Hints:
Blueprint: H1 13-27, E1 31-37, H2 41-47, E2 53-58, E3 62-64, E4 68-70, E5 78-87, H3 100-105, E6 107-116, H4 129-134, E7 141-144, E8 161-166, E9 170-175, H5 183-196, E10 206-211, E11 216-217, E12 223-227, E13 233-239
Parallel strand pairs: 1-10, 3-7, 4-13
Antiparallel strand pairs: 1-2, 5-6, 5-10, 5-11, 6-7, 8-9, 8-12, 12-13
Amino acid sequence: MAALPSSCRPATREEGYAVQERVMAHAGRGQFGWKIAATSSAGQRHIGVDGPLAGRLLEGQIVHGGATVSLSGTQMGVAEPEFALRLGRDLPPRPRPYRTEEVMAAVDTLHPSIEVPDSRFADFASAGGPQLIADNACAHLFVFGPAARAYWRSIDLGSHTVRARVEGRYERSGTGANVLGGPHLALTWIANELSVLGIGLRAGQVVTTGTCMVPLEVVAGDRMVVDFGVLGSVEARFDG
């Protein structure tokens, strides 16, 4: 669609989240976790927003590493290497902001992952933040990798390098710093963003923290492998 009708188009971030919540409730599926979009300044410029956006990941949107992902019906045609964090305990809404030390203490495991975003808007770059939030922050499919093999808490995730290759075509790299300065800072952002809305993060939920490099263009037939170094790797194949 070009845009939501003016009679029900969200004008603020809060209204966008209210629409998102109701649309996701109609899906009739359990919630796997959360995603964060536009965690880099380049990503924010690309979709015309002034800050990150949170979206829900539902059961049925999740595939596991090594699986084949369908690009049928999608328009973005990109895949994004991301650090994903699974919570071991709740972070409920509260009046005071969460500190990074608190949210990281609530994390159980870290997972190399790939997000395959998409949007319902024909020109998602001009839809604006409230409409993109209503569109579930462009959440579409999520490739969930295995838990990191290394003791990841001893690693500076902000400076950690991630390398990705679309086999036979090209390679790209990035670091955790491209995600709001680091995955730990991105997790803190979403804990506080949701807390203000009266929403908490729950034990067992996964938060994928945003792409750590320029998104990789993929087409049917591609195989993408992402190397997180000592943290492990994740891969996906794409078909039409």
